[in-house]
# Entry
Amino acid sequence: MKNKIIFVIILIAILLGAGVAYAYFATDTLKSEKDMFFSYLLEDKKSSEIENKIADYAEKKGKTPYTNKGETTVNLKMEDETIPAEVMQMINNGKITFEGTTNSKEKKSEQNVTIDLSQGVNVPIKLKRDNDFFGLQTDLIDSKYIAIKNENLKALAEKFDIDSTEIPDKIDFETTTLFTEKEEKELKNKYIGILRDNLGEELFSKEKKDKQTIITLNIPESKLIEVVEKILEELRNDEIISEKLTNSTKKQVEESIDQLLDAVKGEQGDDTNKLEIKLYVENRKVTKCELLALEEEKVSMKIEIEISENEITIKAYDEEGQQIMTVAISTEKNGNDATMKMNFKLQDAGEVISEGELTITYKNLFTLDNVEESISVKMSINEGNVSEEAMEMGLNYKNTVTFAPDAQIEALNEQNATVLNTATDAELQALMTSFYQKMGLI
# Structure
């Protein structure tokens, strides 16, 4: 049952995250601990100034044509020699540059991409979209674009002897995998509602400590199993979530949920094992949440979520009380610029086995023009339980967006492209012959 307790902690933590992060009191006149507990979880999250401006920026990119120019570099360091030195040098000295134009409203875009492999070796590639046509051009293959029309994709796959079972006839690029504000609220109400409807008043308590009010939910394992089963059954048939998944992903998710349901069903549970959730409230704000897995009153795992105005920190501890994970997420506004950071650290027996940092910066975000998007990723894996050898990796991405309402994008058609959907066998054979000749293979 210990593995199930850990799984349930993670599941409940996800459910709590949507409601606890930056949650505020709806009222201070609630009559029960249970009502007070769930009022925090169901309170609407207040969007920050940065979140609102990023939404404005995304909306403008969706309505106004823009040009962009940027580059990506990678740094990799490994102590072993599984990757040849010349390949490592090529990776670390190389870069990818890109420049282009996008008109999201008309579903058109073009990018000129150059893969610079250092030492004067580079591969230029052109990418283009024109509504349902998607094309790639490189002189290594042909002077014309190689294009696919986003229709009858099953037939296209079969034309090249590719299994088309999981391939749709058309890919819907306009369907977003992100939840709308309305969907988020509906999901939060639904799943937290399952908790509320199935947890009795007797499981809740409240205490005062200094300036804090601590509200505790103590769930015996048998009740926990019952609630988790109801949540999984609801997830299995959730239309909002299902609509965001591809057919193959949907099948995998359903199979995973079925496996979890099979593991949970029929379990009676040992009520000497419990899950304890504590909300710490100060100045009418939730400042911390604790989740504790208890086995015969002893803590087998603890997760702490600390919440401030611009930062959330998550810490996990093992049964010995040693810290095994730290994740910190923060945002900062500096003039017209905005920065978001996420740091993580994994530890084992007090030793750091992996750590990393993700930094996303938007320069000029609050002017909504000439916005420089940058992403920096740093990660290291140290010798020990995770890897036989240490490794360090870094990735840097920069892209400057300039809005250009009059920007034009050349059409993609049968005059400048070979469309694979309608290409004859002779055209495909000519294409392959051209490629072999340019590669020096014939």
User: Anything to note?
Assistant: The mean pLDDT is 84. The longest helix spans residues 2-20. The radius of gyration is 27 Å.
